[in-house]
Amino acid sequence: MEIKQIAPGFAASPQIRPEDVGRIAEAGYQTIICNRPDGEADDQPRSAEIAAAARSAGLNFRYLPIKPGQITDETLHAFDEALVSCKGPILGYCRTGNRSASLWALGRSKMLSPAAVLAATSQAGYDLAGLRPRMEERFGGAISSSVPRKYDVLIIGAGSGGISVAASLLKRRGTLDIAIVEPRDIHYYQPGFTLVGAGVFQPEVTQRNMEEVIPEGVTWLRGAVAEFNPERDEVILEDGARCSYTTLIVSPGLKLDWEAVQGLPETIGKNGVTSNYRYDLASYTWKLVQEMKRGKALFSQPPMPIKCAGAPQKVMYLSADHWRRNGVLDDIEIDFSLAGNVLFGVQDYVPALMDYVERYGIALNFSHNLVKVDGNDKVATFRVTEGEQTRLVEKEFDMLHVCPPQTGLDFIRASSLADAAGWVEVDPATLQHVRHGNVFGLGDACSTPNAKTAAAVRKQAPVVAMNVLSVLDGQTPAAVYDGYGSCPLTVEKGRIVLAEFLYGGKVAPSLPTWMLDGKKATRAAWLMKERLLPPLYWQGMFRGREYLAKPRMTFQKIGGE
């Protein structure tokens, strides 16, 4: 928590958590205003939790959610009313503090000059220069003729896709003017969450400060996207700033839709309900696994697409292996309820997985989609599909590991870049947008029919980098992505079934079978996952080192054409 004082009676802050409220009260604040809508990010505490903590601490709480880039006159009026009616000092918070600071700045601009308002916000650490035209209009002056900064390449998102493609671009052409738009301060190595949930990794090894991973020479724009305007080659950020580009790369990831399961947001992280899909919950998974000696363990998987389709069963196998090693497996009933009708999408790897399903005595339940969780009574409700009929089935549990439903991010879904399903609509081979030739996409946000994994990003980044350079040089993109994806299925501690495949589920091993047979559970694949893949991620992909990732060059369209 970092409170930034803007005026004597008002301060702004990035996202706070319930445990921060006591310190906020100790600092003398009397009112907390939440300017962030619930469900905007997967690791975000709900406003009701903050409100309850505020009441316990004797503070007032107001929920005034603002979507990025949507500060209307009505919301300004509501915010001004809150400043007047609520007891001060007041702390406003959102994802980064930018929205709360922007609300204060625009509200004050009717009484104070833009220069004075911007000086106050700048001193507090918020650069709101992009709001100057609107502030001048509210103050009564002429609208300034501000021109947005233009970049050769503008990248949306500093996840594995954004960082990798920036590094690949700079490796090929170090003179490029590149900027990355990213609101988060921490980058997470998400493939490591599975091993945190199994007690193999400590949580800290899966995160690094964002400034450490963004390549040197790339401008970091700390903000969130409010709107795309591809017709004008512009992106508008949540504080109103406009960024112009010659080429745009969109790689913001996807949305973990916890709200789609009734009761899940209220109980996740307690009552035996956990998920390795969140950094702050993976350790809770390991705690539950260690503590469980008997009872029923449920593992769920929603409809596709999801990132790392093997993750929901990886945690199940590793948990079962721990219980087996500790002699309690026979006292634990394991249930895997998944919305699909197959254990894994590439049939070649199913026999090896079924060996472990049978070894651990796992009950497989296909066509079971989790729709509700009652944490207090420890009951999970599934919608079961049987032909054209559906019915609801309730299952009691002592431990429940949830894989949340996953969709395109809201600002992508609302944009002209999205397809009907809410994903960035790109050509599956060149990863070029189907309607805007200077726009590319990669990673989890894309419409490509491949597995959403870091391994896919490793192959996509060089393709996008080469094709972006082609567009900058006035040429036709010629590098193609073949749909490669990889899923190291951790079936026990020390052994992995390494699934590698292309578009259409074609098996595509990176190494000869005599070195590593991916259709079998091997120790070699485990050592690769545990020892080799993390440095390949941090020192390989993020440094533009494209090991076994050289793109194929062709003009032939592949994969879904």
TrEMBL record:
Residues 151-255 form the FAD/NAD(P)-binding domain. GO terms for molecular function: transferase activity. InterPro entries: BLH_phosphatase-like (IPR005939), FAD/NAD-bd_sf (IPR036188), FAD/NAD-binding_dom (IPR023753), Prot-tyrosine_phosphatase-like (IPR029021), Sulphide_quinone_reductase (IPR015904). It comes from the Bacteria. Keywords: Transferase. NCBIfam families: TIGR01244 family sulfur transferase. This is TIGR01244 family sulfur transferase. It comes from Acidimangrovimonas pyrenivorans.
